[in-house]
Amino acid sequence: MIATDTRLVALVGNPNAGKTSLFNALTGASQRVGNYPGVTVEKVTGHVRFEGKEFDVIDVPGLYSLQPQSADEEVAAGVVHGEPGLSQKPDLLVCVLDATNLERNLFFFSQLAEAGHPIVVALTMTDLLAKHGTPIDQARLSRLLGVDVIPVVAHKGTGIKELERAILDNLEHPMVPAFDVGLKPELDAQVDAIAERLARDAFDVERSTIRDSLSGESTELDERLAPFPELSEALEEARSSLASVPDKGCTDPASRYNWAARIRRQVLPDASLKRIRTSDRIDALLINRFTGMIVFAAVMFVVFQSIYTLAGPLMDGIGAGFEWLGDLIRPWLSGVPVLESLVIDGLLTGVGSVLTFLPQIIILFLFIAILEGTGYLARAAFLMDRLLGWCGLNGRAFIPLLSSFACAVPGIMAARVMPDPKSRLATILVSPLMSCSARLPVYILLIGAFIQPRYGALWAGVALFGMHLVGLAVAIPVVALLNRGVLKGRRLPFVLELPPYQWPKWRDVFLTVFSRAKVFVQTAGTIIVVLSLVIWFLGYFPRSEGDEERYRGEYTTLTSATRKHIEEENYIRQRQIENSFLGRIGKAIEPAFLPAGFDWRLSTTILMAFPAREVVVSSLGIIFSLGGEVDEANTDLRTAIQDARWPDGRPLMNGWTAVGFMVFFALCCQCMATLAAVKRETNSWKWPVFMFTYMTGLAYLAAVAIHQVGLLLSG
Amino acid sequence: MVGGVETIGFSELKQGMRGRVVSVDPHAPALLRLQEMGLTEGAEFLVDKVAPLGDPVEIFLRGYRLCLRKHEAVGILVEVIK
Question: If one looks up domain A8-172 in CATH, what number appears?
Fold first, then answer.
């Protein structure tokens, strides 16, 4: 944590101004990611040591305005002002100004300056300007703003030392910008007009003198102009025309922009319509009605396929690695069965399941960082906004939702590409409804058992496709309801910048991926391991010494025909689960699942799959006495489910129950990693609890509805 | 008509049109963010692109490219510059 005697420098600026790049260049590997209390905003800090002195840096989330309009912006603005409870009050602000987007960046600067904070300006993207032959007059900018202006090109390291030196100097002798942006636009225009008029007659008069004269605060100019009737008259005219202007207050955006435009004209005279031509040419293709859509589809296909297929072997590798590790440890623990099971089935499984998410997270954030870094992500959001906007999301939701079809965990983490906290939360809450790859085995098993034999391969395919649409279809009304009822605060208007295309900066890409992976393992990972141990406990206990012998005894009393189907070890495993807390709870809640047509075996399977739906097929294997090693293509398991009976001899499942069971799995929140990720990303237990409740409730209602309709129709 | 100038609503703009903001409805709080982005009275811009599905639109404003939704800019009156 930050020691209070270390000086704190806050890095502030507009989104896309190059703030993060600069932060990375300053702090490198010393970054720490945490959360501000009670909000979703991440607190990113780092440490700098330079010429024997040191200071801490805090990366304040990008802001367009210091006048906060959402909870997240309130926090960011609070950090700038040093509000207690968020962080130590910054001793100095480093305001990042994008030289290619000076007016809007200066708008924000004017708000900072007005608040009276000491500031150093880091001027970014000057390399881009120089490349287009329009260098910026930074000495003049520094004079006009009344603070140090240091040009930096973060990814090349240019200007970093100079900036660090300026920071140290300013920590010693802070410079608070002293100038007045608070002009009414009309007054401003008149000051401009008079200044021009006087310049024509070779009068060099300060703007502030003209302003004071027009607002009646000083008569200095009047006296100087007295010998020139023509000029005196112009001054008088300007003054009388201002008398009719209603007082608009001095902090309206228009006056700030007038000031910003004036500064910009002085330091960068001909940039008003300067375009980055290469970007325009690329955009003619990439946000075009036809080619743009094709490229978009191709890019998304590559992203999705990579997560879906590239991550697979890596995840298998991690799984195999942990099995190998388990086998390695097993001999040491074999004397104590409880310990053996705790370490191998509880701890190693838990840690392993945390790590299996890493390949997907790394691949997805690699793509996001590259797409964001090049500027394409903004174009994709522009293309997709209409499609997602009508149900209350926006174009940026595309990436989290699409990746959730592979896995909701990276999807939820990817929702941070959305700056508007309300849309981001809505996206997080519906992402797990997308049909992730872990749901596929249960679809394949049940469609193979109940749809394909009866209706053929074509309908099996339709059913599989349909199962992938269920979550998507449910997500739309859920978002609409969330936006109307649950999520507070008004939605901000959708604004999106299209930055010029650039090559991604590999250090920034690497640090983004690294920090996402680290944050997931540290925070979500801990939750996942703890929950794994809880589930292990419920599935292992109660278990007493004589149990296993008793089950062996039971096995010998089974008919030889039954024994041919069921191996002794698998029978014991099934009896152990049945007798565990998990099995007992499964039996206890059986009545609740009767309206959906599920017996205790299915309700226990559902319970076993709550930590991670990946285990559903192996859970069914254990429950149906086939052992946990079966997969979804296992014909014995398929037959066992088809042949399963109620005590009164009716078949346990038919087509309707199978669909109900699949829809239950499609909608239910059976993934503690998802809940842990939501806890991490929203920084509150409220939202994972809400998500779990609404999804499980929906799943239950849907399964019951399907079974009841099935009963009605099949009479 | 505002002050003798022919104005249209922001949503009526077409691709390729050049516009100047004539007035921003002071009673629409949602417009504050758009003003902060630079769409203030007197700001000139070019309607650069319209997304394939008709919305949002991309404008070139104050030296940068801003995308916004037409229906979220209701209350911004614009003079078309020929």
Answer: 3.40.50.300
Q: What is the mean pLDDT of chain A?
A: 86
| Residue whose tokens read 């599935």 | A539
Domain ranges of chain A: 8-172, 185-249, 516-713
Is the predicted pLDDT of residue A188 greater than 80, yes or no? Answer: no
Q: How far is A466 from chain B (nearest CA, A)?
A: 26
Tokens of B21: 């903001």
Total H helices, total E strands in chain A: 36, 8
- Residue A311, pLDDT > 90, answer no
Cβ neighbours of A64 in B, within 8 Å? 33, 36-37
Looking at chain B from residue 15 to 44, which residues have their Cβ under 8 Å from any Cβ of chain A?
Answer: 29-38, 40-43
Q: Could you write out the three-class secondary structure of A161-179?
A: HHHHHHHHHHHHCCCCCCC
Q: CA of A35, closest CA in chain B: separation in Å?
A: 26
Query: For chain A, first and last CA: distance in Å?
Result: 67
Asked if the C-beta of A291 comes within 8 angstroms of chain B's C-beta atoms, the answer is: no
The residue with tokens 């000051």 is A191
Report CB contact under 8 Å: B53, A101. Answer: no
Q: Which residues of B touch A396 (CB under 8 A)?
A: none
User: Does A493 sit within 8 Å of B62, measured CB to CB?
Assistant: no
| pLDDT 10s digits, A448-466 | 899 888 888 899 889 999 9
Q: What is the ipTM of this complex?
A: 0.95
CA of B31, closest CA in chain A: separation in Å?
Answer: 8
CA A266-A271-A272 angle, 5° bins: 95
User: Which carries the bigger pLDDT value, residue A635 or residue A705?
Assistant: A705
Question: For chain A, what percent of residues have pLDDT higher than 90?
Answer: 31
Q: Domain for residue B2, yes or no? A: no
pLDDT at A478: 92
A23 in contact with chain B, both atoms CB, cutoff 8 A: no
Q: Is the pLDDT of residue A32 over 70?
A: yes
| Residue B27 belongs to some domain of the structure | yes
Residue A3 is predicted with a pLDDT of 46
In this structure, of A176-185, A487-496, A523-532, the range with the lowest mean pLDDT score is: A176-185
Q: Is B77 domain-assigned?
A: yes
Structural domain containing residue B41: 7-81
Q: Distance (Å) from the C-alpha of residue B43 to the closest C-alpha of chain A?
A: 9
Q: Which residues contact B47 (CB under 8 A, 6 or more apart)?
A: B13, B14, B15, B16, B17, B18, B19, B57, B58, B59
Any idea what the CATH number is for the domain that residue B66 is in? 2.30.30.90
Between residues A701 and A420, which one has the greater pLDDT?
A701
pLDDT tens digits, one per residue of A98-108: 998 999 999 99
CB A253 to CB B60 under 8 A?
no
**Best interface-test mutation with A: which of B58, B59, B64, B81 has the largest number of A CBs within 10 A?**
B64
Using alpha carbons only, how large is chain B's radius of gyration in Å?
A: 12
Q: Do B62 and A498 touch (CB under 8 A)?
A: no
Intervals of chain B under pLDDT 70 = 1-4
- Of residues A60 and A220, more confidently modeled: A60
Beta-carbon separation of B30 and A490 below 8 A? yes
CA–centroid distance for A680 within its chain? 10
Q: pLDDT band at residue A179, thresholds of 50, 70 and 90?
A: low
For residue A651, the distance in angstroms to the closest alpha carbon of chain B comes to 51
How many independent structural domains does chain B possess? 1
> Which chain B residues are closer than 8 Å to A102 by Cβ?
63
CB contact under 8 A, A64 and B37: yes
The DSSP output letter for A30 is G
DSSP states of A645-712 as a string?
B-TTS-BS--HHHHHHHHHHHHHS--BHHHHHHHHHHHTSSHHHHHHHHHHHHHHHHHHHHHHHHHHH
Q: Does A493 touch chain B (CB under 8 A)?
A: yes
Whether B1 is covered by a domain: the verdict is no
